[in-house]
C-alpha cells in the first residue's frame, strides 16, 4: 500500500498552486475536466496533490473536513538545501522541529488555516534548516 494523493480544497487556488510548484518543486499537469476548478500536481510522474477550488463560503463555527497536514520526505541533502533556498527566495515562513530519537528534522509551512505542509529529512541533511 502507498499514498496515492492528497486533495486540498482552497479558497486561494493560485497561491496554493504556486507554493507547490515554485517552492515544493511539483509539476502542474494533466487534470480531468471536472465541474469545479483545480489542478493536479505531479511528483515522479504521478499526480500526488489534487487542488480543488473552494466553492462554499466559510461559515464561522462550522467544522468542515480537512487534512491536518501532508508530508514529503527528502532523502537527499542537496534536494533539502535546494528546498530551503526556494523557500528563502519566495519569502515562505516555516518552522522546524527535531523528531525525538529518530535523527530526523521536520519543516512545517502553514499555507492557510487548516492546511499545513511538512517536509522531513535526516538531520544530517538539515544543517542549515534553522529559521
Going by CATH, the architecture of the largest domain would be: Roll
Shape: globular
Judged by helices, strands and strand pairing, the structural class is alpha/beta
Q: How are helices and strands ordered from N to C?
A: EHEEEEHEEE
Domains (count): 2
Task: Report the biggest beta sheet as strand number plus sense, adding barrel if it closes.
Answer: 4 strands, mixed
CATH class of the largest domain: Alpha Beta
Write out the CATH superfamily name of the largest domain: 2,3-Dihydroxybiphenyl 1,2-Dioxygenase, domain 1
In what order do the strands lie side by side in the largest sheet? 1-4-3-2
- What do the pLDDT scores average to? 84
Uncertain segments of ≥5 residues (pLDDT<50)? none
Number of strands: 8
The amount of helix comes to: 10-25%
Distance between the termini: 35 Å
What name is given to the CATH topology of the largest domain? 2,3-Dihydroxybiphenyl 1,2-Dioxygenase, domain 1
Q: Total number of helical segments? A: 2
Amino acid at each position: 500500500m502507498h499514498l496515492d494523493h492528497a486533495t486540498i480544497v482552497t479558497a486561494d487556488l493560485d497561491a496554493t498552486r504556486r507554493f507547490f510548484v515554485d517552492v515544493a518543486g511539483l509539476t502542474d499537469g494533466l487534470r480531468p475536466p471536472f465541474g469545479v476548478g483545480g489542478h493536479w500536481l505531479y511528483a515522479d510522474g504521478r499526480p500526488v496533490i489534487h487542488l480543488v477550488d473552494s466553492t462554499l463560503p466559510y461559515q464561522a463555527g462550522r467544522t468542515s473536513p480537512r487534512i491536518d497536514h501532508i508530508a514529503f520526505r527528502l532523502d537527499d541533502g542537496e534536494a533539502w538545501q535546494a528546498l530551503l533556498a526556494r523557500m528563502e527566495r519566495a519569502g515562505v515562513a516555516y518552522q522546524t522541529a527535531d523528531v525525538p530519537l529518530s535523527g530526523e528534522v521536520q519543516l512545517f509551512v502553514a499555507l492557510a488555516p487548516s492546511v499545513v505542509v511538512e517536509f522531513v529529512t535526516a538531520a544530517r541533511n538539515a544543517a542549515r534548516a534553522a529559521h
